[in-house]
Amino acid sequence: MPELPEVETTRRGIAPHIEGQLVDSVVVRRDQLRYPVPKDFEQLMGARIHCVERRGKYLIVNTDYKHWLCHLGMSGSLRLVDGDTPYKKHDHLDIALANGRHLRYHDPRRFGLVVWAGTTPQAHPLLCKLGPEPLGHHFSGEHLYAKSRGRKGAVKNFIMDSQVVVGVGNIYASECLFLAGIHPKRAAGRVGLARYQALAQAIQTVLGDAITQGGTTLRDFVNSDGQPGYFAQQLRVYGRAQEPCPQCGSPIHTQVIGQRSSYFCKQCQR
Ligand SMILES: [Zn+2]
After folding, report:
1. Considering 54, 55, 57, 66, which one is annotated as catalytic?
2. Is the pTM of this model over 0.70?
3. Strand order from edge to edge, sheet including 77-82
4. What is the CA radius of gyration of the chain?
5. Centroid of ligand 1 to alpha carbon of 243 (angstroms)
6. What share of the chain is helix, strand, coil (3-state, %, to 5)?
7. 19 carries an active-site annotation
8. Do residues 33 and 73 make contact, with C-beta atoms less than 8 angstroms apart?
9. Which of 254, 136, 156 is nearest to 199 (CA)?
10. Which of 20, 81, 158, 242 is deepest in the core (most CB within 10 A)?
11. Of 25, 2, 7, 31, nearest in space to 103 by CA
12. Directed axis angle between helix 193-214 and helix 4-18, to 10°?
């Protein structure tokens, strides 16, 4: 599933090729995504694309006609192809640009979405309640500490809540809690400020590294072949049940927390 680093990598991959471009035509082959693609999406024809931004796992494409949002769902990808590239199964949407390239949306499971964003995208109902960006100025250990007071639920579920902070998916949650030495089932309200500062730093390190790593796959976003450029991460604990902990050597433990697989070291995480 595309996570925040993949979405940011997508943004960086497509931005230089679509910003400033005029939309030549729009082809919607299948409009039934998580929400229907707007009936008037073809009206983008003739509009100029100003810029592509990201908020959480949403891409915001600003044009001089209307702005639109795209979410990649479980299996979506957005890439640039040459205009004469034949479309494949699950290539649901093409935005043809005046430079001859097509921005092509592919999504086998169709949990993604393409919708108008309104005049102020940040105020859109899908975006307005999102917590801070993990790599932005509003995110800190103090923020996590303040948000968590009185919360009895597991800290792992707490940091995966997009109203607390965006972008900490299931895999990243295990990795970040390991780095910060915090047991995933500890009650969020029972973690102190210093430990939340370590956790905030771990979140920034893990997501920052993933984005840096994603940079090496950028060419995949302007290539018509192969898989989308989602990258295999170097993972410390996730998926490594029974393997030695990289810190102390005792076997990595796995347990389902909040219906999601979690990996942690019982010795190093308290
Ligand atoms: Zn350990």
Report:
1. 57
2. yes
3. 23-28, 91-97, 101-106, 77-82
4. 20
5. 10
6. 30, 25, 45
7. no
8. yes
9. 156
10. 158
11. 25
12. 40
Q: What is the distance between the alpha carbons of residues 81 and 234, in angstroms, rounded to a whole number?
A: 29
End-to-end CA distance of the chain: 29
Q: What was the pLDDT predicted at 2?
A: 86
- Candidates 12, 186, 240, 260; catalytic one: 260
What does the pLDDT read at residue 265? 98
Mean pLDDT over each residue of the chain, to the nearest integer: 92
Expressed in angstroms and rounded, the spacing between residue 251 Cα and the centre of ligand 1 is 8
Q: How many angstroms is it from 262 CA to the middle of ligand 1? A: 15
Does 260 qualify as catalytic in the annotation? yes
Distance of CA 14 to the CA centre of its chain: 15
Strands of the sheet containing 113-116, edge to edge, are: 49-55, 58-63, 68-71, 113-116
User: How far is ligand 1, taken at its centre, from the CA of residue 265, in Å?
Assistant: 5
Q: Is 57 a catalytic residue?
A: yes
256-266 per-position pLDDT tens digit: 999 999 999 99
3 an active-site residue?
Answer: yes
Residue 137, both tokens = 């100025």
Catalytic residue chosen out of the listed positions 3, 6, 8, 175? 3
Distance 246 CA to ligand 1 centre (A): 7
Domains delineated in the chain: 4-123 (3.20.190.10), 141-264 (1.10.8.50)
Q: Is 186 helix (H, G, I), strand (E, B) or coil?
A: coil
